[in-house]
Structure formats: structure tokens, C-alpha cells
Design a protein that fits this description.
This protein is of the alpha/beta class. The chain has 9 helices and 11 strands. It is globular and about 50 Å long. The structure holds zinc ion (ZN).
Length: 265
């Protein structure tokens, strides 16, 4: 049985079960996490399914999901620019490099790491990006420093979010900023769709199911000097005006599908 990664308590209540997976809530600190974790090494080989080429990544892509990711990445950059207009940017869990591709076109000196060789090869071959199969610990050993570090849907994959965030702190320059985005366990989407929302409820890969409150706690325990919830509510091009309006409203109450935080070293 896995203890709570944040407070080490073993006292918990089952929130939901899916196939063999048990998602529990810690009675000590309220963190919702996966109690029985699959063997790490096996699962990421098939994580990325890449069935497109670099030209398919655009706002009018023939693949709706790629057009959506393109739109989201443009909006991410617009927010990021409010904090830092340029600098050395590390994307942790960069996958096939879609975010880095967009960032590289907008004045940032980009670098990415991931666990999947398949995804990294795509990022290198198609987008000519500088990406490597390395861990945060590897980068610390190399004395690397960054002005901006992004974790788009990555923190929920870690076995121990606090210890990984502490490494992020070491990798940030003095005035560096880190952006964290995770699926929101308290979102209307999660409440309505539960098992059907693969982006949020994904126990094979997700080890923690954050709410605004538990994410803030996790960040604070990692020693960052300042934390700010960023109210990014992504406007999705294929959705109606009313849908996007309702989405923005839900974001005000931290009930939108994603949670975003900016944290400073
Ligand atoms: Zn706990």
C-alpha cells in the first residue's frame, strides 16, 4: 500500500475505483492519489501515439485535437509573456515538442526533456528541437539553469511531486518562474465525466489528482517563495461562444478542467 506522497499518512478513504486502480483521499492532508501504482518502466513505451507530421500542427489542422493543442499553446505563450518575454526555457515532459515548437518561434531559447524516445525522436526529426531523454536530477548534475520551466500536465505523473518540484527550484535562475498546469479533480468536467475523461482520470499514468487546494499545498511544501494561481481559461476554437464563456466562469471558481499556477524560486 502506498502512503500519501505529501504527508506520509497511510490513513485514507477510497474515492473511486477503476478496473484494478484505487484512487484514495488522504485523511491527513486531503491529497487525492493513486494507491496502487503500476510498474514505471513498462508503461511509457506506448504513452505517445504520434500519427501526424509537423505540417499537421496548425490552427486549421485536419486533426481537431491538434488544432486545439495549437490554440492552447498560443494562449499559454501569451500568458507566459506577461511574466517573461524571453530567456532560457525548459519544458519538462516535452513529448513530441508541440509546445516547444510554438515557444521557439517566439523568442525563447528552448530545451526539453522526456522519458519517451519515440516522442523525442519526433521532436528532433520533425521540429529540429534540442530535446533529450534526461531527468531533472541529470540536469542538476550538469549545473543547468533556466529562466522559465514549464510543466504542462506533468506533475500528476510523478511518484513524488514535492521532491520533483524541489529539483525544479534548483534548476531555476534567481528570478526564474515555473508554470504548472494539471487536470483539476474539482472541475465540472471531472465531476460529470469521471471515468470517461481520459485527460483527467487516467490512473495508469496519473499518480495524483490535484485540486486547487492540494496543488497549492504541494507547491508550498516544495519551498517556492511565491505562488500565484493563473486564471488561464483556454478558448477552444471549435467550441461555441457560450461554451467558452461558461468555461471562463467555471475558472473563476477553480472548477475549469485545468489548474494553472506560476511559482517563483
Ligand atoms: Zn497526506
Amino acid at each position: 500500500m502506498r502512503a500519501c506522497p505529501n504527508c506520509r499518512s497511510e490513513d485514507c478513504k477510497i474515492k473511486l475505483t477503476e478496473e484494478d486502480f484505487k484512487i484514495v483521499k488522504c485523511s491527513g492532508c486531503g491529497l487525492v492519489y493513486l494507491q496502487n501504482v503500476p510498474e514505471e518502466s513498462e508503461i511509457y513505451e506506448d504513452y505517445y501515439e504520434i500519427k501526424f507530421s509537423k505540417d499537421d500542427y496548425s490552427i486549421d489542422s485536419k486533426y481537431d485535437y491538434l488544432a486545439e493543442i495549437y490554440a492552447i499553446n498560443q494562449q499559454r505563450l501569451r500568458f507566459l509573456k506577461k511574466f517573461r518575454k524571453e530567456g532560457k526555457l525548459l519544458d519538462v515532459g516535452c513529448g513530441s515538442g508541440l509546445f516547444l515548437k510554438t515557444a521557439s518561434e517566439q523568442n525563447y531559447d528552448v530545451y526539453g526533456i522526456d522519458v519517451s524516445n519515440k516522442a523525442l525522436s519526433f521532436a528532433r526529426d520533425e521540429f529540429k528541437l534540442n530535446v533529450q531523454q534526461k531527468s531533472l536530477g541529470d540536469l542538476i548534475k550538469e549545473n543547468r539553469k533556466f529562466d522559465i520551466i514549464t510543466l504542462w500536465h506533468v506533475l500528476e505523473h510523478f511518484m513524488n511531486p514535492v521532491s520533483e518540484l524541489k529539483k525544479i527550484r534548483v534548476l531555476l535562475n534567481e528570478n526564474g518562474v515555473c508554470f504548472i498546469e494539471v487536470p483539476n479533480y474539482n472541475s465540472i468536467k471531472f465531476k460529470l465525466l469521471r471515468k470517461k475523461w481520459k485527460g483527467g482520470n487516467h490512473p495508469l499514468y496519473h499518480r495524483t489528482f490535484f485540486t486547487g487546494k492540494t496543488l497549492r499545498k504541494t507547491i508550498q511544501e516544495s519551498g517556492f517563495s511565491a505562488t500565484k494561481r493563473i486564471r488561464i481559461s483556454y478558448k477552444l476554437p471549435q467550441k461555441s461562444f457560450m461554451f467558452n464563456k461558461a468555461k471562463t466562469m467555471s475558472n473563476l471558481f477553480a472548477m475549469d478542467a485545468f489548474l494553472d499556477y506560476a511559482v517563483w524560486r
